Amino acid sequence: MPKLFSSIRWKVLLAFFLIIGISFLVMASTLTNMLGRYLFEQRIRADRAGLENWAVEVAPFLYNADVDSLSAAISRAGNEMSGRVLLLDSDGKVQLDSFREAHGRRLAYPEVVSVLLSGQMADYGVHSLKTGKTIELNNPLRYNSRDEWVSYSTASIIYSSKVVGVLLLVSSVGEMMSNLYTLQDNLILIFVIVALAALMTGAVFSRIITKPIVNLTGVIGLMSKGDFAARVPETGSGELKHLATAFNSMSERLQTLDQSRNEFVSNASHELKTPLSTMKILIESLIYQPEMETELRTEFLSDINSEINRLAAIVSDLLTLVQADAHNMRLEREKISLAALVKETAHRLEPLAAQRMQRLSLTLDDSGDMYADKSKLRQVIYNLIDNAMKYTQDGGLISLSVTREGRDIILSVSDNGPGIKAENLPHVFDRFYRIDKARSRDSGGTGLGLSIVRQIITLHGGTIKATSEEGKGSTFIVALPIHKG
Ligand SMILES: Nc1ncnc2c1ncn2[C@@H]1O[C@H](COP(=O)(O)OP(=O)(O)OP(=O)(O)O)[C@@H](O)[C@H]1O
Ligand SMILES: [Mg+2]
User: Fold this and answer.
1) What residues does each domain of the chain span?
2) For 332-481, CATH number?
3) What is the pTM of this model?
4) Residue 1: its pLDDT value, please?
5) Residues 68-101: pLDDT tens digits?
6) Which residue, 284, 311, 277, is CA-closest to 300?
7) Which residues, listed in sequence order, are joined to residue 88 by a DSSP beta bridge?
8) Residues in the ligand 1 pocket, defined by CB under 6 Å
């Protein structure tokens, strides 16, 4: 099949055309057949009734061989029934003919024979004058319209319970047939007009149906070339509109994903580039100044070392995030005590706090065990305390608390540092987001800590929120469901 006809549009059009065409043809042929049958039945009934009356009338004349009365009656009958009336004797020989032509001839028409031999009262048949072929009356239009069609009606003439002769009426049915053929021609004409109209409406309908699909295909083509901003018009109603809406929301999501992927890649490369350039400068200095003092050389090497540590930390953070994005991050839940984990992590950070004369205050309500991923929660606690210490001035106070609220365990980390401005607060969980970029980088921050924290907590089915008052400090509150192992 050519490509043109394999499209939905053509299929719809063809289906439309076939449904209308077939139903019209069935309807038209049933109608003409019914009408044909009806017309013939009427005609047969009228001819038969007339002829039988005449048979009764002429019976005594025939029996008494009253030729004058007979021939007068036959020509009257011919006039009255607008046809040719013949009187045949019991041998089938023509005795009288209202056209005065066939006297003395024997007519062995089936209609005559059936009346004379099988004793039927009357018979009827329609024939072609040219070929003598008989029509089957239940489908008169099967026959050639140019033939001259005549009907033969017969009625037996009975006198004293004996068949003494036959009356034969030959009349033309050409007019009836031609009326039927005209009807058929008209129906064909109407069919052509209806078919054209059906094709036109079908074309319009199929266009309406396929237009959204064509639009969608176009937009999918654009998207596959990387244009995620393309959208399909959400017109019309019903399934196709739903399809367009669903498609648009999918493309919106893809666009957002594409944007955040681009941002992620450019931020990540930027973050990796900074320590690499620092290392390059340091290493070049070491190469081009072989006479460098040992003290300075050691300082340079230790700077290079800390840049390498920073790179490793960034790469490991990035890997964690990528894993979480790809839904590859799995929790290894075990029975843990969050209070104990906080105590342990705080204890590890104690020396660092002491260096800056910061105080870590712990309020731990040993609220029972929970099922969670120990090493990931340790990372959460570490990141939150690390932030609190990093962004709080020397001598500051960092308060940690673990409490139980219903089916949740609440961890809160607060500090009395400078706090976070309300406008920045909603963004602190975004990737690579740092409020004071220079300061944060000095303290080794990449802006990934809190987004990792949030990923881990979400994966545990918990929530995290931040509150802060400028100048007074910030508080991060984590709620984790206990989760029965
Ligand atoms: N306790 C806090 N007080 C004030 N600002 C904070 C506090 N915690 C986080 N912030 C701000 O939110 C930003 C994002 O924190 P996040 O932990 O995600 O990144 P980071 O600490 O800069 O880097 P990283 O944690 O990856 O080393 C920080 O840069 C800082 O500006
Ligand atoms: Mg941090």
Assistant:
1) 3-196, 239-324, 332-481
2) 3.30.565.10
3) 0.60
4) 43
5) 999 999 999 999 999 999 999 989 999 999 998 8
6) 284
7) 94, 166
8) 317, 383, 387-388, 391, 415, 417, 420, 428, 433-436, 440, 444-451, 474
